């Protein structure tokens, strides 16, 4: 009877309160029920503390290695079980998008962003932001006001700074990969790494091409194709050959403030052509960087390459030079995945659809210049 009375008393007593410890130290009761109750109450307190933690965290472009809250750990675990075909869809309903896809866990989204940065050079050198919905309008200076010298008691000349807006929307980009049922059933198969590598490569390549030469039809307008994209810098003397003088002309076509953070962007064939340039003594003019992990430099500015930059041909624009912080990439938050169970069942495969929404635009054309080849 005494033990039962104690159980009722301690059950309604707050953990760590003076009364709780007084009851626990009572010598007239059995210790085993007390110890079990103490353990139960402490576990309950831990669960309540975990439930009071935030259920989500902000997604940044510099992913951290911090551990996710328990609720996100559970969502991530359920997400990957679903991707492998286990029936946990009900637990993921809070993470669905209007099209029926499942939002990827934050940890995986951060990993995918890192893969995109490796696959898409523009994500490395440009300014990347996150948007939630609708158009993102960026106010920019269209023309700057000026000052004027004045005679004694002369009227001030009116000169106002003109502003305009650049709008960033969201274009849908997606891809499909297929995985065999045998691999999915193999617990040693790292599904998360495989999907992040494959989707990162595919989405990154498609992004990079559109950011440079996109035609605006269901995709971003490219830096080279946008009428408000990169501005004209210099024109080469020949239609299919560059000289180092052409690069110097391009360098000084960019205003000095932008040259502080400026980089060159071209394809590998153009880099090779520059690398082969020689002086009158048959010595190579340009010596690439020998420091591991550092980009090559021309005129003390880093050189980056993209296979989607134009070739050295008449009227092409094979080289970009400028501060790419004035090229903005807008990621619409929330990449999604769908699992296709039946479509490829005959061949023993499962399909995975991945999609994202993104846009990109030059917000200040004078900050990025083009080198154009001469027309024939």
UniProtKB/TrEMBL annotation:
SUPFAM superfamilies (UniProt xref): Major capsid protein gp5
Gene3D superfamilies: hypothetical protein PF0899 domain, Major capsid protein gp5
Record localization: Virion
Name of one Pfam family that matches: Phage_capsid
Domain Phage capsid-like C-terminal: 100-372
Stretches for region Disordered: 50-69
Coiled coil: none
Biased composition (Polar residues): 52-64
Signal peptide: none
The organism of origin for this protein: Limosilactobacillus reuteri
Designated name of the protein: Phage major capsid protein
